[in-house]
Structure formats: structure tokens, C-alpha cells
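Both lines are given unchanged directly below:

***
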Amino acid sequence: MADADHLAWHARHTGRLDVRAAWAHFEGAGRGVRPAKTLLLHRWSIIVTGLALAPALPWVGAVAGGLLFHRLLDDLADLVGPAWRARAVRRRKVLHQALFRRAGYRCEACGATGTKLEAHHRVQREAGGKDALENLVALCVPCHRRAHEQLGLNT
């Protein structure tokens, strides 16, 4: 589940309160803005203040300790993220090549050949769909656009 501060940030920037979309955004933060330093509960001043209050208010210290751990994980993700994203791009390229080969380089909706093909998730990632060959279908650009319009998706 998305953290409350992540969810609030995502809602403010997209205009919709959607836990799955927020989680997908922050899981794939390399595709968008990485707001770790702008999230209220990620600010070092909040974390340090909470840790300083720990002797007087142990519950505040416990929350601050959790925030510290969370912030360190996010900062680590920022450091290793580019390498992971490059690996994911290579994996996706191989997966798409296998998909298009399986489809005989034809759109699996209309049968068009000699046109640009795109990979479409039968079950969208935001709904728990996987990046796996059995969850993908090869579609030409117009069919892919229609598929997303039918699902009410923007892309």
C-alpha cells in the first residue's frame, strides 16, 4: 500500500486519490518525478526532531525511527534505481521481441502487418498484472489506443 504522504503527493499532482496508481507511480518513480525530498514525512528536520523527542515521547521516537528507515530505503532506491531501470528496459525489450515473434509480427486484434506493434497488458500492472508473456498481447498503435479507451485509461 502507498504511504499516506506518497498518496497525498500523488493525489495533489494527478487530481485523483488512487492508492494503486500512487503505488505504481512510486514503484516506477524513475518514469516520473521522484519527490522524496518534498514529502513532509521524508524531511530530515521532521525525522531528527522526532528522534530528539524520543526520550520524552517514546511513541514519537518510534515513529521517527520508522520514518528514518523509510527515508534511508528511499535514498538507497535513488542510488541504485538507474541501474535497476536500465536492467528493466533491457528485460522489457527482450520480452517485447518474444511477444512480437509469438504474434507472427501481426496485430493480434486486427491482423495488421508491416506496422508498428506495441505490447498491451491484458491485466494492467496497476490492477496486479505482470510483465510476462502470458499477460501481453501485440497490438498495432490504433488497436492499442482503442484498447486503452475501452478500459478508460489515458495512455
Remarks:
- Residues 103-155 form one domain.
- The mean pLDDT is 85.
